[in-house]
Amino acid sequence: MQMMLGVLLMIVATALGAQVEPFLATPLANSVPGTLQTLALLTGSALLGPTKGVFATVIYLTLGMVGLPVFSDWASYSLTELVEYPSAGYLVGFLPGSALAGALAARSQRLPALLGVMLAGHLMILLFGVPIFAASINWETALDAGMVQLLPGMAIKTLLGALIIYRVRVSRRASTSTS
Fold first, then answer.
1. What pLDDT is stored for residue 54 in this prediction?
2. Residue 26 pLDDT level (bands cut at 50, 70, 90)
3. Which residues contact 84 (CB under 8 A, 6 or more apart)?
4. Using one digit for the tens of pLDDT, what is the confidence trace for 41-87?
5. Domains of the chain
6. What are the DSSP calls for 106-158, one per residue?
7. Angle subtended at Cα 39 by Cα 139 and Cα 56, rounded to the nearest 5 degrees
8. Structure pTM?
9. What is the phi-psi region of residue 119: left when phi exceeds 0, alpha when psi lies from -120 to 50, beta otherwise?
10. Cα 37–41–44 angle (5° rounding)?
């Protein structure tokens, strides 16, 4: 029951995070929005572990592909629409990104290592997102709007995610030691 609650919480947090765009919009923000989606996705995966994190990610992506508006700007994309969506690669990168964050976090206890976990997850998403974005426009624009302009927000989300993971783990340890 607790596992399913964690998965559900990650899905809801990712969907809500996709609607919050606190970072300076890039010129192509409609194509690659700078939302809190990856903060929720990678933090949730790190806390749930790779299997449950990927499971939650698959459900999240599936919900968006069957018509539930869980993506940025309350959008949903059928598989056919997703293939034509310029930033589909970032969504595809959610799967290996969540797996990597979950796997690395399982072995990482200290805050500096957790910063590395979040950074690795974000870089994995970029590794899939930027080339697919470039295929719809060009490499120079994709690197600028699809990566460079996203880096400040990514750095903030990496720091926040690592702090959240660390704090949740400290709280868990404290509650299990007092039980």
1. 98
2. low
3. none
4. 999 999 999 999 999 999 999 999 999 999 998 999 998 898 888 88
5. 2-178 (1.10.1760.20)
6. HT--SHHHHHHHHHHHHHHHHHHHHHHHHHHS-HHHHHHHHTGGGHHHHHHHH
7. 100
8. 0.92
9. alpha
10. 135
